[in-house]
Amino acid sequence: MADDGRRRRRAFIGSFTAAGGPGIVTAAVHPSTGALTVQHSLDSLPDPSYLALSPDGGMLYAVRETVEGAVAAYRVTGDKPESAGPAVPVGDGPTHLGLHAGHVLTADYGSGSVTAVPLRPDGTLADAPAAVLRHTGSGPCAPRQQGPHAHQVRSDPSGRWAVSVDLGTDSVRVCTLTGGDLTLHRETALRPGSGPRHLAFHPDGTHAYVVNELSPTVTVCHWNAVDGTLKPLTETPVLPGAPAGDAYPSGIVCSPDGRFVWTATRGEDVLSVLAVEGDGLRLVGTVPCGGHWPRALTEADGFLYVANERSGDVTWFAPDPETGVPRRAGAIEVTAASCVVIG
Asked: pTM for the complete prediction?
């Protein structure tokens, strides 16, 4: 146990080995300051750009973001992840993964698909995928939207639905996964050319926030978990003025108390603070991200962690509980950092 009685926590950091990254990095998390201390790295999987932990924290899953994509599993009962079997091929260029209904789901950006790989009772991966759902469609922004590009897939808070966000088709798909069959339930269109990237749910389970990569905005949606419907309501800028060039928003998280939404924007190297106001958001302001090209954003135990890909570091922040404004608290070096998960 930690000195103050809180459970010992670890951070797992993904990175791009093709850009000199160390692979999967394990770091200790200080229970009261949120500070990270690097412990180990593992470079057996090329470009492990996104990671996910099992609910009990005993297994770690990673995508291989290469042209011929794959997903791999690791046991993390000790201080260092240990391979739990060979990587399983999925679609091209997977950028995200999530756990849902006894499967690992991958969002395959290159092939515009979602792949479902079954989990064995011990948490290891089956030898092959059970299903692939191929997205169709396009958007008005060439060349980014000439076809589908699934960028994120995750379970909704009720656990009934798998939700995939597609940058290429300006839409969010709600799916079911039953008996190994991945089936489209409903597709929700967002504003043409917005380029949705990632989605975060409000703790109340009735709202979802979609950060758009091709326009620096967040789309607020109503979420109905009973019938699996997503309804766009409003769209809010994440920057106080028009960017000088392409802004490339990336990560989005909602505070545990539901009062704030935070986003990261790579082209501006900032974190944005948005206050939740009923069915909408209000931009409070922005702060520097602590590095360059913030690719991913994570909240854990009252701290925000930012993977700054091009400056090669992970920076952590302590948000003000009243205003939501993050205060920089520290950083560690991780070359080509791409994501952070904590468990």
From this structure: 0.96
d(CA 133, CA 79): 36
Task: Measure Cα distances from 324 to 115, 256, 315, 338 in Å.
Answer: 36, 12, 17, 24
Report in angstroms the alpha-carbon separations of 44 from 90, 114, 150, 169, 309: 18, 24, 25, 34, 20
DSSP state of 248: -
Share the mean pLDDT of the chain. Answer: 96
Which residues pair with residue 217 across a beta bridge? Answer: 212, 237
Structure tokens at 210: 């979609």
Q: How far apart are CA 325 and CA 259, in angstroms?
A: 12
| SS3 category, 17 | helix
- Among candidates 95, 80, 106, which has minimal Cα distance to 10? 80
Q: Round to whole Å and give the CA distance between 123 and 110.
A: 27
Q: Identify the CA nearest to 270 among candidates 256, 289, 285.
A: 289
Residues in the chain: 343
Does residue 4 have a pLDDT over 60? no
CB 137 within 8 A of CB 169: yes
Distances (CA, A) of 40 to 3, 30, 78, 293, 330: 22, 16, 11, 24, 19
The answer to whether residues 326 and 319 touch, using CB atoms and an 8 Å cutoff, is yes
Q: What is the pLDDT of residue 244?
A: 72
Q: How confident is the model over 191-201, as a mean pLDDT? A: 98
> Rounded CA gap, 256 and 260, in Å?
9
Query: How far apart are alpha carbons 24 and 10 in whole angstroms?
Result: 13
Contact status, residue 63 vs residue 73, Cβ threshold 8 Å: no
pLDDT digits (tens, 9 = 90+) for 76-110: 987 789 999 999 999 999 999 999 999 999 999 99
The one-character DSSP state at 18 is G
Percentage above 90 pLDDT, the chain = 94
For 168, which DSSP code? T
